[in-house]
Design a protein that fits this description.
With about 160 residues, the protein is α+β, with helices and mostly antiparallel strands. Helices cover about 20% and strands about 35% of the residues. The chain contains three helices and eight strands, in the order H-E-E-E-E-H-E-E-H-E-E.
């Protein structure tokens, strides 16, 4: 028998690991042993990254912003616990429903937060913000500051961004 390929066939709608709420438009958030490889096609996209859970799931493309987000959330009076996990965000067109379906896949295992290297990863997060303070997306630190040119586009300067 051929294994199911559509998200709606593989996962229960509304299922969520650790009872965290699902972000809007997600089919589910499920724990799995092995994450799928990254993929980008017109009808199927798998993005690898990290999931942060503390009452709701949030997906990030890199560990640096995921750790900063989780740590900041835990400092709130409303957050009693959080976890950061390796994850994948899978988006696939469903032939049956004739629409895209989205699932958050969370790798089983220990949380990645509060480890020995967390301070260094948080420094990289701040470095990325220092280099591109206007950006809403994550960019790996380059060691150089960027500025907005007269044409409205960012460009890398020759000015070093280190030390913090």
């Amino acid at each position: 028998m051929t294994p199911p390929t559509m998200i709606c066939q593989r996962y229960e709608q509304g299922s969520t690991a650790w009872d965290n709420r699902l972000p809007r438009d997600y089919w589910g958030a499920v724990e799995i042993d092995t994450l799928p490889r990254a993929l980008h096609r017109n009808d199927h996209v798998v993005a690898r990254g990290y999931a942060v859970g503390f009452g709701q799931w949030f997906f990030f493309p890199a560990i640096e912003p995921a750790l900063a987000f989780g740590r900041a959330a835990r400092m709130s009076a409303e957050c009693s616990a959080y976890g950061v996990y390796e994850a994948a965000r899978e988006l696939k067109f469903c032939e049956h429903h004739q629409q895209d379906e989205l699932v958050l896949l969370i790798k089983k295992g220990d949380s990645l937060d509060r480890k020995a290297d967390e301070v260094e990863l948080l420094k990289r997060f701040v470095q990325g913000i220092k280099e591109r303070p206007w950006s809403a997306g994550w960019h790996e630190p380059t060691g150089y500051l960027t500025e907005i040119g007269s044409n409205g586009r960012p460009f890398t300067t020759r000015r070093r961004s280190l030390p913090l």
